[in-house]
Structure formats: structure tokens, C-alpha cells
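SAMPLE LOG
Freezer: B-3
Tube label: C17
Construct: single chain, 145 aa
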Amino acid sequence: MIVRRVVAGLAATVAVAGVVVMLPATSAQAAPQCTRASSKTVTSEGGDRVVISVPTTSSGSTTCQMGQGAQSSGVRALQVALSDTYCANLGRRIGTDGIYGPQTRDAVREFQRNHNLSVDGVYGPQTRNAIWWPDNIGTCARAPR
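STRUCTURE (predicted):
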């Protein structure tokens, strides 16, 4: 059996007796951890240039993930977006303490379910791409990819 590991975000390939099987990437392979929040200037749906605060890696990449147990300003940015922007959909506000606990996990699960995403309670690229982030002029915008 030959096993080749492929760069993060890609699936692993396993060759057994000439048959190639693609295995799904694990969450650990999918993206590095979001460790902070960064301000990003983006264009809103209305065409305005706005500033949003989104979870990022320490180098500023928005391709990152967070799950239960994470603690950072990136978690707080996610909590603010879920609480402020989606309060009507979630039916409640969640705490914005920067700790990814059961309340944040459940809000992410509910958001994922409501947006036809894979429901795992983990914030990652698919969830990021579906969220409208609150911006500096009182509207919302998508995070840069």
C-alpha cells in the first residue's frame, strides 16, 4: 500500500493494487487555526468600500478554521457576526467573549444548517464564505476569499 499525503486542503490519495481512492481531507488538513481578527477592506453588495473584522491566521489569511475550545479575537469577530447579523435567524444573541464554547458551536451549527452547509459546528472556509460580516457603516459584506 502506498500512501501519499497531499498539501493542506487536498485529499489524500491511496493506491492499493492499482486502484486509486481519494480520501476526504481531515479538518486538521483543511486550514490553519484562526488566531486573531483582522480588519479587511472589501466592496459591499451595494458597491461601497467598507471595513469588516474577520477571523484570520497570524499572517492575516482568512483561510482558517476554529472549533470548540478556541479562544481569540477571531472567535469574538465570529460571535459578533452571528449575534448581530443573524440574531433574527438564530432567534437569540450569543455571548461575545472570544471563547468558542458550546453556545458558539451551536450557533455555528444552526447557521450551517440554515445555509445548507455541512453541519459540524466548526468555522472554516465554507462557513466563512456564507457569512455576511457586519461592517463599519452599519451594513454587511462578504469576507475576502
